[in-house]
Design goal:
Blueprint: E1 3-4, E2 9-10, E3 15-16, E4 21-22, E5 27-28, E6 33-34, E7 39-40, E8 45-46, E9 51-52, E10 57-58, E11 63-64, E12 68-70, E13 75-76, E14 81-82, E15 108-110, E16 115-116, E17 121-122, E18 126-128, E19 133-134, E20 139-140, E21 148-151, E22 156-160, E23 169-171, E24 174-176, E25 183-184
Parallel strand pairs: 1-4, 2-5, 3-6, 4-7, 5-8, 6-9, 7-10, 8-11, 10-13, 11-14, 12-15, 13-16, 14-17, 15-18, 16-19, 17-20, 19-21
Antiparallel strand pairs: 21-22, 23-24, 24-25
Length: about 190
């Protein structure tokens, strides 16, 4: 069963997976593909042709623009913005309005199980690895490795995190999680 709140604007040309909930005032554009068991919180915007995997949670007020690919199990905190244009302009140099043919989409990929903190901005051309964790308020300008922990503006790598989300510590020539006991190579792959 799919749940779509009556105030949501979901294109009939979007594909919505079983068990997905789309809440108040969301907009899902044509060609978007939302996987199974996803939750799109209030006022989420999903642009045209954006693929979103299964079991993805997108919190209130997120904007996911064309060119983004969201893999399974991703968490987007409140007010995350995934951008798609490195050279934004409303007009061309001659003053004419820019159209679709006047810009190049910069792709963004967010890997399996990654979590993106509240109010993060992700710039075009970035790949965020599996189970990476981006701290709240970060501006991500370059790739984040699998299990990488990045914070700040611009975001910088400060360590690695376990699949359970806890920070990894050095142990026996590798990395380990004190919370769940998982062990990883250094760096995790």
């Amino acid at each position: 069963m799919v749940r779509i709140h009556p105030t949501a604007d979901v294109s009939p040309k979007a594909v919505i997976g079983e068990g997905t909930s789309i809440w108040h005032q969301c907009q899902v554009r044509e060609g978007a593909h939302i996987g199974e068991q996803c939750i799109l919180g209030k006022n989420v915007y999903v642009d045209f042709d954006v693929p979103i995997g299964n079991r993805v949670k997108i919190q209130n007020n997120c904007s996911v623009y064309h060119g983004a690919v969201i893999e399974d199990g991703v968490f987007l905190g409140p007010h995350v913005v995934i951008t798609n244009d490195l050279y934004p302009r409303a007009i061309n140099p001659d003053g004419t309005p820019k159209g679709n043919e006047d810009w190049e989409v910069g792709p963004v990929r967010i890997g399996y199980g990654a979590a993106i903190g509240a109010r993060t901005v992700i710039l075009p051309g970035v790949t965020i690895g599996r189970f990476a964790l981006v701290g709240a308020g970060a501006v991500v300008t370059r790739d984040v490795p699998a299990h990488g922990l990045v914070v700040g503006t611009p975001a910088r790598l400060i360590g690695y995190v376990c699949a359970c989300g806890r920070r990894l510590q050095e142990a026996d020539g590798g990395l380990a999680c004190a919370h769940c006991g998982a062990a990883y190579n250094d760096p995790p792959v």
